[in-house]
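Bumping with the actual sequence this time:
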Amino acid sequence: MDLQAYLQHCQTSLDPQTSLPGQAFKGPGYHSTVEQGTWVHHTRESMDYALALLISDDPQVPNRVPKIINQVLDQQETNPTKQTFGIWPWLFEESLDEMSPPDWNWADFIGVRIAQMLKCHSDKLPDELITRMKTALDHAAWSIFRRNMHAGYTNIAVMGAGCTAAAGELLKEERLLKYAQIRLQNVVDHVADNGSFVEYNSPNYSIVLLEELSRIFVFCEDPLIRALSHELLDKAWQVVGEHYHPPTHQWAGPHARCYQQLLPPLAAQIISEGIGSRVPLHPLNHDATQAMAAMVPTQPCPQEHLSLFLQDKISCPISVRRQFVKQHNRIQTGTTWMNDTATLGSINIEDTWNQRRPVLAYWKTPSDPAVSLRVRMLHDDYDFSSGMIRTQQQDHRILMAWNLLNDRGDTHISLDRTEKPIFTFSELSVQWELVGIDVSVEAIDEHRFELIAGDYRAVLHTGFASFNGKPVTWECGKMERGVTVKAICHSGDPLTVDLRDITDFKLACALEIIPLDQNASLEKLSIEPVNETGYIVQWQDLSVQVPVVCQAYLD
């Protein structure tokens, strides 16, 4: 939304005593222990509100902005002997000590907002507040320096570089500016070595990256910092453009980090500004709880990438295959197919954390600008992080299989990881979800299911599957605004399992996205053992080899 709409939205939820905007808490299930739905006030969103007031020259600036900023600064840890020195909590209602654990990224998120206020709006702020803000920026910058986040965490590596560069210039601290130069160069080198960003093709992280690189041009003058930022902007716009699907106006998969199915409103706003053409939002994607506005002018998409956002790019079906990440012996490669109606994307290997979209499809219908199809591994209806999916894709067809991991957590890949991979399941399943208007699901026969919307369908081909000595069962179902096909590994009385004891997990299926008037394939999956620890599954000209035993993520 634009700045005035954003300010009007904040006004509807403003606490008159504190001048802070509030909202019902909608957490990801980690870091915070606050219950979902609790009315809270966010530190980052409060700073965005203050920044929006400053940018718009709102008449409330003298009364509200110093009050808001001072309250946020009160939340920062200022004791340099504490591990959390320089960071903020997410919420006013939950201290750093109460978080589980604190989020060190908040030194970066709050720090860049303070830097922008100091660089662009200090003439509107009282001198004593400016002094206090500079101290807070100094604390945040040295917290970032001390943490020294690696270049593979791209948006935080870039955001931290921007914050420390701004602090170096504003506070005349040469060591921080030099650190920022080295840090940003490391990101450029890391991206060049991998082929793309580790948080590959992420609608959330890529937008933060575009926003923070654009912010650097607002508050940093250093020529090297700006030149390195230009290099990263070029790569970011290329990745966004390659995966933008003009017919549905969606960001095609696969996604490393993603929080929703449909293109987020802020992403649509920033892409629109960057390419100079409006990207429409899906009609079901006007979520007031996600009210956000860009606080910096978006750096434009380079001319050579603008054609990637035009309908002409898919005058005939295309496939994009891109190397995303190199990890030890493993290379993660994404494949994205699209035509004038549908798109299907996959990653060749990935865990099943709730922020992953390892297989993702969209297509338009007469009733819906974009229905979406994804797959999840679920532990009692929440994404299970200790699973892994392997795929091979050729155009509109994918073959995939799953195995289990011994070095991931339950709801998070690291935050709730335990010494032993022991979990208790009332239900463990793999679920396909087609979400949209006028969607349906049917069983074609014992081994084939179709998820239907408009003139297209996703046909799922299954085969023999087993878990813990028992066959996996398949069933169709319904969910809010959608339909499902579920492979049930276990359901019933709670089952406590050490994943290392599972030696026979086999689960594979194939998917084809085809028009309704096209016959589905009759070819069946074949599964053959490979030694005693794995199997190979084949379908048509596709094959995937999978271990049946639990393993580490990078094995």
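The tokens above came from a reply further down the thread. Residues 127-147 form the longest helix (21 residues).
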